[in-house]
């Protein structure tokens, strides 16, 4: 059944964190510590206030970076370099996932709210280097984050991607709303999910799901 539903897809778009590696790796725990430290040091606030601000930024602007840029005019480049400077020894290569992604017909890209250099490091640690045709970070969207529609439009224009012939794999349900509105197949990759109109499929095992598509 999935093969018929995806037979028109010629572009496959994958988020990075918690999508191309399991949440159990807990990499984002390390990134969040660095994010909070950056907010503290940049704005001169205590940790509790930095945590409150980060929750506000995430809810209002989509990411901590977007909040810092829009509310405090923070330079994004040093921020991205700093918060993604983490060890990746928690990740392991996944040759089965690599093979399943390579089997997908058409163009395969990574699109993350992180930066592209960090994404490339993660892909290497997962044994996924050379699997994708392109890797896009938030810098390629002029630092506009998912779930902003303008961010998706910028990346898709850069890649000459037609949403009506594309599928989006993503762990954050918010980031599937715009792709759904644009006509993409939407797949929520997470341990659990809740029914939402803009989520068409759910899987807790990306490689296994891809087995049903090709």
Q: Helix count, per DSSP?
A: 10
Named at the architecture level, the CATH assignment of the largest domain is: 3-Layer(aba) Sandwich
Counting structural domains, the number is 2
Average pLDDT number: 96
Major sheet: arrangement of strands: 3-2-1-4-5-6
Give an overview in words.
By secondary structure, the chain is of the alpha/beta class. The protein folds into two domains: 2-22 and 93-211, 3-Layer(aba) Sandwich (Rossmann fold), CATH 3.40.50; 27-83, Orthogonal Bundle (DNA polymerase, domain 1). The protein is built from ten helices and six strands. It has helices at 2-5, 27-43, 47-61, 64-72, 76-83, 95-102, 116-125, 149-159, 177-181, 206-211; strands at 11-14, 107-111, 134-136, 166-170, 185-189, 201-203. Strands 3-2-1-4-5-6 form a six-stranded parallel beta sheet. Helix 9 links the parallel strand 4 and strand 5 (185-189). It is globular, with a radius of gyration of 17 Å. It starts with a helix and ends with a helix. 36% of the residues are buried. The model has no long low-confidence stretch (mean pLDDT 96).
């Amino acid at each position: 059944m999935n093969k018929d539903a995806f037979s028109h897809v010629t572009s496959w778009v994958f988020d990075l964190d918690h999508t191309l590696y399991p949440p159990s790796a807990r990499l984002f725990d390390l990134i969040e510590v660095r994010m909070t430290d950056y907010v503290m040091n940049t704005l001169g606030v205590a940790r509790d206030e930095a945590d409150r601000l980060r929750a506000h930024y995430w809810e209002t602007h989509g990411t901590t970076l977007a909040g810092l840029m829009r509310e405090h005019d923070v330079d994004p480049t040093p921020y991205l370099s700093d918060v993604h400077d983490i060890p990746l020894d928690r990740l392991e290569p996944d040759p089965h996932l690599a093979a399943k992604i390579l089997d997908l017909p058409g163009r395969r890209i990574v699109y993350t709210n992180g930066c592209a250099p960090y994404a490339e490091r993660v892909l290497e640690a997962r044994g996924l280097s050379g699997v994708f045709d392109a890797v896009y970070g938030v810098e390629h969207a002029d630092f506009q984050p998912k779930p902003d529609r303008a961010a998706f439009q910028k990346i898709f224009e850069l890649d000459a991607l037609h949403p009506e012939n594309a599928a989006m794999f993503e762990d954050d349900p918010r980031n599937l709303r715009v792709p759904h509105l644009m006509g993409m197949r939407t797949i929520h990759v997470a341990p659990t999910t809740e029914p939402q109109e803009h989520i068409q499929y759910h899987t807790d095992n990306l490689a296994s799901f891809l087995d049903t598509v090709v």
